[in-house]
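Quick one, tokens below. Sequence please?
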């Protein structure tokens, strides 16, 4: 015959087990929500973002960033081009700014210079002066010799509404890097 305290202990153990299972399911749901609702993975399929990203890297981009923050110069962004391909590029000029490159120096609004030797070691970058329309940004590949960016008419100045998110994490093999590594 089971005593009242034994029955109470068994019921308590059963409730405790159910609490742990419930907490585990909630934790799993939160992890899945963060991984696939907030961040999205993208496989880097080309070498246009060398030296920052290599072919075969996996990046995770922040899908919610664009709803709560303004884009900044230097952000690596993920977007779809007109053919539906997912591209990763770096913002170099913002709405209302002018951008040009002369003799390998990127000039923003005639006053901001960025030495391009890190990005274009083989040939100097030259871009005719372009004014970035409101609601758009000017993006470039980190490998400036790879022309699938705002210099290409197919992409042009990129509408900020077409940006899917900002790169936050990069995976290479088993190594994890922050977005600005």
């Amino acid at each position: 015959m089971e005593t009242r305290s034994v029955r109470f202990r068994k019921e308590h153990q059963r409730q405790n087990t159910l609490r742990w299972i419930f907490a585990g399911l909630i934790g799993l749901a939160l992890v899945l929500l963060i991984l696939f609702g907030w961040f999205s993975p993208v496989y880097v399929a080309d070498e246009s973002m060398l030296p920052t990203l290599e072919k075969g890297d996996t990046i995770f981009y922040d899908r919610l960033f664009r709803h709560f923050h303004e884009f900044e110069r230097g952000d690596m962004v993920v977007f779809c081009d007109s053919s539906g391909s997912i591209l990763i590029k770096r913002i170099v000029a913002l709405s209302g700014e002018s951008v040009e490159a002369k003799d390998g120096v990127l000039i923003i609004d005639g006053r901001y210079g960025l030495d391009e030797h890190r990005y274009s070691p083989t040939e100097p970058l030259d871009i005719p002066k372009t004014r970035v329309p409101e609601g758009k940004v000017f993006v470039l590949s980190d490998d400036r010799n790879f022309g699938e960016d705002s210099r290409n008419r197919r992409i042009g100045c990129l509408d900020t509404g077409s940006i899917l998110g900002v790169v936050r994490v990069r995976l290479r093999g088993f190594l994890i890097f922050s977005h600005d590594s």
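The two ends are 68 Å apart (CA to CA). The chain has a mean pLDDT of 84.
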